[in-house]
Each structure stands twice: as C-alpha cells, then as structure tokens.
Amino acid sequence: MPTPRTPDPLTLEVVDLIGSVVARYHEEYESAAAGHALTGAQARLLSLLSLEPLPMRRLAQRLKCEPSNVTGIVDRLEARGLVERRPDPADRRVKLAVATEEGRRVARSLQDSLRFAREPLAGLSEPERIALRDALRRMLAES
Question: Does residue 95 belong to any structural domain of this protein?
C-alpha cells in the first residue's frame, strides 16, 4: 500500500487559506442569518428554495442532513410565512417545499448582505476569477 506523500509547504498554505475562507464565510453567513432571526440551516434551505421548489428528500441531500431535520426546518420557516408545502404537479404524492414571496425577499436580502467573498472577488480580473472557479470545480470533482 503506498504511503501518503508529505504535503509541500505550498499545499499546506493553500489548505490553510481555504480553511480561513470557509470559516469567514460561515461567520458572515451565520451573522446575516441571525439578522433575519434565522439559523444558518434555515437560511441555507431558504436560499435553495428561492431558486426552485424542491421535494423534502432533495433538500436533505443538498443540505447533507436527514429528511427528518429538513421537515423541522421547513415547519419553522412555514410558521413564519417564508415557505409553504405544495403537492408536486408531476407526482401528487410528493410534497414540494416552495419559498413564498416573503421568503424570496428574505433570501435576496441574505445574499445582498454577504459581501465577504463578493468584494474581494470583484478585485480580481475576469481571467483570475475564471481560473479560481475552474480550480475549485476541479478540486470538488476530484473529491
């Protein structure tokens, strides 16, 4: 069995920087969510639903959690008028979670308040942003 290579200093620095970016993004996301009296999980679910209605099972897959957790999150968002459940027109046995107009407004406000990544990225040239995007896609595809 091959032994793992010891990472070189550049790789270690990149891993550390990725960790710092992720931590700062989560801090800002949690703060933005709290500004709307939402948990981070509620905000992420609402952001997903602002793009398209989704069945509960697909939401659980996207959020990488159990469907029972999604049910609780949807229940709380539904009680606030941000989400509603509707039958799936393609299969009426399936319930879709759908962002209400107010839910979409809150999701837009959340996205607008997330400046941490957007502002530094605006300082990069388009070729730099494309290279970064492509490198991140490649990293995700290989994991």
Answer: yes
